[in-house]
Design goal:
93 residues; two-stranded antiparallel sheet; 3 helices; elongated
Length: 93
């Protein structure tokens, strides 16, 4: 269903939906936040900020908007790893 030009996935029937949502955020962001690589820590912070943004401003269509943000963030993560591979001497074979 479309709602304000966003897809609406109504999962509010799940009694623990909000708990799962924040548990998901914890699971996907903590590995980046504890990384020794500065760019990955920044990436983890951006993940949290985009999650909060999507949850605050697009609460009704959160899942759809978060999927869009996650896709954009995934492409930036690919760029980070590609950059490491091309500029890191220990990764060159």
């Amino acid at each position: 269903m479309l709602y304000n030009l966003n897809l609406l996935y109504d999962l509010k029937f799940i009694s623990f939906y909000d708990v799962c949502k924040y548990l998901y955020l914890l699971v996907i962001s903590v590995p980046f936040l504890i990384s020794s690589q500065r760019l990955l820590v920044i990436f983890g912070i951006v993940v949290i900020l985009s999650f909060i943004l999507a949850d605050s401003f697009y609460q009704t269509t959160f899942i759809s908007v978060w999927c869009f943000f996650a896709a954009a963030l995934s492409s930036s993560l690919w760029i980070i790893f590609f950059d490491w591979k091309t500029h890191s001497p220990e990764l060159k074979n």
